[in-house]
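Duplicate of #3305? Posting structure anyway:
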């Protein structure tokens, strides 16, 4: 029997019989791995564990610890949910059911609304399906045969037929578990028996294919983990996350709002939120300038000709907004990069000038469906802390290394010390020569290794225009958030003929890097609200010190003191309301103001203050000048 060589992620090579399944390889590595296996990647392609290996290949066994393993697990539980609902409610028509960032959802068309009270019944049926431990089989057939096959199944409906008609491939795949079958690309776990710990969390309205003019569906959300212990821990985290919901805290602290009058997905920053955002901008502006970045600005409206050159017009048009001026079509910018390239291309550049680093807090607009808009996390207008670097190929490694140090310093300033770094490599459909991709990817890898940074490789996960590095940060309750991205681009320099004059006096193609540290101010602000639960550090807090006069007779002293503090850059307010002192303290705590100064006869006479923190600690007898100097220094140092 002939053999094939299987290269594992650690570089080890195993010889196995041709036709061996991924599961057989996992079993040969160890029974624990085989038990935990969700799916596999063969030469970067996701496959089922039953996939047969017919040639030499790279193989990665995916478990729940891998992001793609989680996705396969959650999508598999989704099929159990769909089967349970189909068996309990025969009148239901199935929509779609993807895995999402944290769990899964499935859309159902049913005249009678689901309620959370139905969840216990559905979960009980799901448990029955899990206990039956159905084998999960993949079935492939020609698209012409698929319609006949679907017509014989209970899951057949007009939604399935519409999906089938829109599939551009000749072959269609189905997944079968017991009596249930669903059209699906896969992969899935080997059997339903491993899907033991799950919880349905909520039901919400949705429209078929996100179109408000189409059928209204009911979307059931859920979460699942391999063990009950992990599920319970996650549910506890969700409970804490609900308390930290940035939309609720924004209302409590008067940070921002969204108004139907202005339009969905467009943020109105109130004074408190605007102060925090301005602090973020000033911090990032100074950090950019320190590193030799040059500020640039561009208009929000740009002629469509530019978007045609960049490729956005052909590939991103449905996500853009357009208008007409003097008979010319203009696009409201969804990206900042074409404008930065146009600025670079206004003149000729020598290799001696490179790298050129541009930065802009560039506001962009994208057409998002109303159903996916969510506070600061999913919006139609947002501002990126955008940067674009133009360099020679030999400068890639050094610049990326500096960018990584830049990003980690910024994230540490906000208290993010745990993170996951991903290096994404060339996808199947990519532009550029293999040699250029390999050189660029090796430069990114070397930059990470120079700094001794741990990273995971996402084989084939790069953009079509170049490899990239992404940084996800872990917040105070253990959630991961995508922030920094560093992307090499072979596409736009070709489209826009971006060049420099080399030592040889000839023109050479520039290497371009797209980078954002926060990602966007909106999303990062939302993450900070939830990370801090609204209790911002002193330097970011909208109000840093509140003076609480015991009675009206102390208002004058407090106002003078407030002016003295403001002169030193300390954001100070005086609560001269008619509330009692205890109520003023409680109000300040609810507003999460870091420092409170109760001022009565003793304080105004002695010039010494009693300093109360928002968590209840009290320090007495602090001289006014000492307090001001210390507070100003803490703000300056961003403690």
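Output from current build:
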């Amino acid at each position: 029997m002939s053999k094939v060589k299987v290269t594992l992620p650690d570089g080890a090579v195993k010889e196995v019989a041709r036709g061996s399944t991924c599961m057989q390889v996992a079993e040969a590595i160890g029974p624990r791995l085989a038990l935990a296996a969700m799916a596999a990647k063969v030469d970067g392609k996701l496959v089922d564990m039953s996939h047969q290996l017919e040639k030499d290949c790279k193989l990665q066994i995916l478990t729940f610890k891998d992001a793609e393993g989680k996705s396969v697990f959650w999508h598999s539980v989704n099929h159990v949910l769909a089967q349970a609902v189909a068996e309990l409610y025969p009148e239901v028509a199935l929509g779609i059911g993807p895995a999402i960032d944290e769990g899964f959802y499935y859309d159902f068309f049913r005249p009678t609304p689901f309620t959370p009270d139905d969840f216990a019944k559905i979960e009980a049926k799901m448990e029955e399906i899990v206990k039956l431990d159905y084998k999960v089989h993949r079935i492939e057939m020609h698209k012409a045969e698929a319609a006949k096959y679907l017509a014989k199944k209970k899951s057949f409906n007009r939604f399935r037929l519409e999906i089938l008609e829109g599939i551009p491939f000749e072959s269609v795949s189905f997944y079968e578990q017991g009596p249930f079958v669903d059209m699906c690309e896969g992969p899935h776990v080997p059997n339903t028996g491993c899907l033991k710990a799950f919880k349905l969390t909520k039901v919400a309205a949705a429209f078929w294919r996100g179109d408000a003019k189409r059928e209204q569906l009911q979307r059931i959300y859920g979460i699942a983990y391999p063990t009950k212990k992990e599920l319970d821990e996650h549910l506890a985290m969700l409970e804490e996350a609900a308390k930290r919901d940035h939309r609720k805290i924004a209302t409590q602290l008067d940070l921002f709002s969204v108004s139907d009058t202005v339009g969905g997905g467009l943020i109105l920053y109130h004074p408190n939120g605007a102060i925090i955002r301005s602090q973020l901008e000033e911090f990032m502006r100074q950090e950019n300038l320190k590193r030799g970045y040059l500020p640039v600005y561009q208009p929000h409206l740009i002629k469509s000709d530019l978007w045609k050159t960049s490729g956005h017009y052909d590939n991103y048009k449905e996500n853009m907004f357009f208008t007409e001026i003097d008979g010319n079509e203009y696009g409201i910018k969804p990206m900042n990069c074409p404008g930065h390239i146009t600025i670079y291309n206004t003149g000729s550049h020598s290799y001696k000038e490179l790298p050129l680093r541009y930065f802009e807090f560039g506001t962009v607009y994208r057409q998002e469906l109303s159903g996916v808009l969510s506070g600061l996390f999913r919006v139609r207008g947002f501002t990126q802390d955008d940067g674009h670097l133009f360099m020679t190929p030999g400068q890639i490694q050094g610049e990326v290394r500096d960018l990584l140090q830049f990003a980690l310093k910024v994230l540490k300033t906000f208290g993010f010390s745990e993170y996951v770094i991903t290096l994404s490599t060339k996808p199947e459909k990519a532009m550029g020569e293999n040699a250029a991709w390999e050189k660029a990817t090796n430069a990114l890898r070397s930059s990470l290794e120079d700094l001794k940074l741990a990273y995971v490789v996402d084989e084939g996960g790069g953009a079509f225009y170049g490899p990239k590095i992404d940084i996800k940060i872990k917040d105070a309750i253990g959630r991961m958030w995508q922030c920094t991205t560093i992307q090499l681009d072979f596409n736009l320099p070709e489209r826009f003929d971006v060049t420099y004059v080399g030592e040889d006096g000839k023109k050479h193609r520039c290497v371009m890097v797209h980078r954002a540290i926060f990602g966007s101010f909106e999303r990062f602000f939302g993450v900070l609200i939830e990370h801090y639960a609204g209790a911002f550090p002193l330097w970011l807090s909208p109000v840093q010190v509140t003076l609480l006069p015991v009675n009206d007779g102390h208002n004058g002293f407090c106002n003078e003191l407030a002016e003295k503090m403001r002169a030193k850059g300390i954001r100070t307010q005086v609560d001269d309301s008619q509330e009692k002192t205890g109520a003023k303290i409680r109000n300040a705590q609810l507003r999460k103001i870091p420092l409170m100064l109760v001022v009565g006869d003793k304080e105004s006479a002695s010039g010494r203050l009693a300093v109360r923190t928002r968590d209840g600690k009290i320090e007495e007898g602090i001289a006014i000048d000492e307090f001001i100097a210390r507070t100003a220094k803490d703000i300056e140092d961003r403690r």
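Confirmed duplicate; merging threads. The first strand starts at residue 3 and ends at 7. The domain at 3-63 is CATH 3.10.20.30 (Ubiquitin-like (UB roll)).
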